[in-house]
């Protein structure tokens, strides 16, 4: 359950009135999620999601909420944060920073098929095109500059637990990725404000007569400026794998990459570095899961995700660089 702070109907009404959203007709806590307090809120003017932020503070939130608003106003299917009379998107409720965003229809597809990956590829590329005009800048806070100190923090804990192989792999992979990021190819990668955590549980689908239709992406609270291909790599490592083994599923990979390419063709350096960025994206989540596992924080991460899943993926992507490069080139060629 993810209601850390209880919100009453009068509390919600106060905020709804301030935002000009009408009378509250329903308020229901949302069970999913691990980080924030979320409620479905219905008013006489529509259906919304009310979030009370348990970790992020007022100063940190404008980047994420303004990005969502920018994307929503440029035709991308994302929740639209509602402003107050002064145009502010970050509000206060029950002593916490809060936001009210439009509610997406549908549900997450936790066993995505080719058709879901095609939709994801199209909409992800649209989102990357739309984010180009976004004026605020914040780096990906879970990027390379977070990795080195976090590896230093986690390594002694792994060693104390007798996980010396794991600690060695962490160090080796960090060294390889640091070198990759220092290359001229990496410096040439197109960048933008990207989601950085677009796993299958952060998208919604509705069923249309011709198949699933992506109704939106949400949970932008790890977004930041990074290579567009890093965002695509995060998606591939979650949407296009066999969850039990971490192995890539060729058909879903082709579907995602070829449909992305239809909207935003990859340039040569992006295609060349994508296998390396698959390693980077796997490493990022392996490390954050190790960090959550060994250094759990109060009032967040109720049930830490299993780091072993991403350790497996790191090992696979290291071993499969050439095979993955070939497969990606074929997927891109489908649409050339
Ligand atoms: N804009 C939205 N529209 C519809 N449902 C949403 C929306 N935002 C969040 N949800 C629902 O709330 C749940 C928790 O949201 P999430 O952002 O994952 O929480 P947390 O930040 O705590 O991890 C999601 O699984 C989804 O069901
Ligand atoms: N997707 C990350 C964890 C982030 O949690 P979220 O619920 O905020 O998406 C992972 O799987 O490690």
TrEMBL record:
EC number in record = 2.7.1.39
Q: Keywords for this entry? A: Kinase, Transferase
EC class (word): transferase
The keyword Transferase is assigned to this record:
yes
Q: Report the protein name in the record.
A: Homoserine kinase
Organism annotation: Amphibiibacter pelophylacis
